[in-house]
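DATA SHEET
Item: assembly model
Revision: 1
Owner: S.N.
Input lines:
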Amino acid sequence: GQNIDQPTEMTATEGAIVQINCTYQTSGFNGLFWYQQHAGEAPTFLSYNVLDGLEEKGRFSSFLSRSKGYSYLLLKELQMKDSASYLCAVMDSNYQLIWGAGTKLIIKP
Amino acid sequence: GAVVSQHPSWVICKSGTSVKIECRSLDFQATTMFWYRQFPKQSLMLMATSNEGSKATYEQGVEKDKFLINHASLTLSTLTVTSAHPEDSSFYICSARDASGGTTTQETQYFGPGTRLLVL
């Protein structure tokens, strides 16, 4: 079967760095997405990785290793507004998105 | 770019009535739109994939006669919850894929703001 694993919840301190991991087992691979979802709101797109390596976008970076079935989202200089759920999703060989359950990130002052 | 709107954002209705939710891509053409449902503190659940001009593809366990989907144009898809019941109360979110852009934008789903449905 297809499976996406990410931690259920993480806690970090304002100003610090946090890394949210995602491992996946899917039938085929056409890219990995990270979305941010604040409570009560719809997800917003953060990043897309289809090749191995690190993609940096401001305070957020996303890394992919296809051979390991592994990705992480790195958030630097954490702000209180970064408190949200972070969803990892993989596009399989049928171009269907397989969603992880999300990681709830709690930022403490 | 890549803005998706949904209307209405909130619906409260009586049991047995039908509710229509609209999803529009405002600044791009979306050959494919997706409808999700999300219960509190749970993950997104894909309900159906909607392709412009053809019948929607429903996920297992989703009743197509209860959740009617129409994707009549490249910028509009509608979801009608027929004969809504309290157990249909949920957060309904649509997303759209931009068919015209480069690789990244072609694969990325952009989400609407969601519609909260409360059936009394």
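QC remark: The mean pLDDT of chain B is 90.
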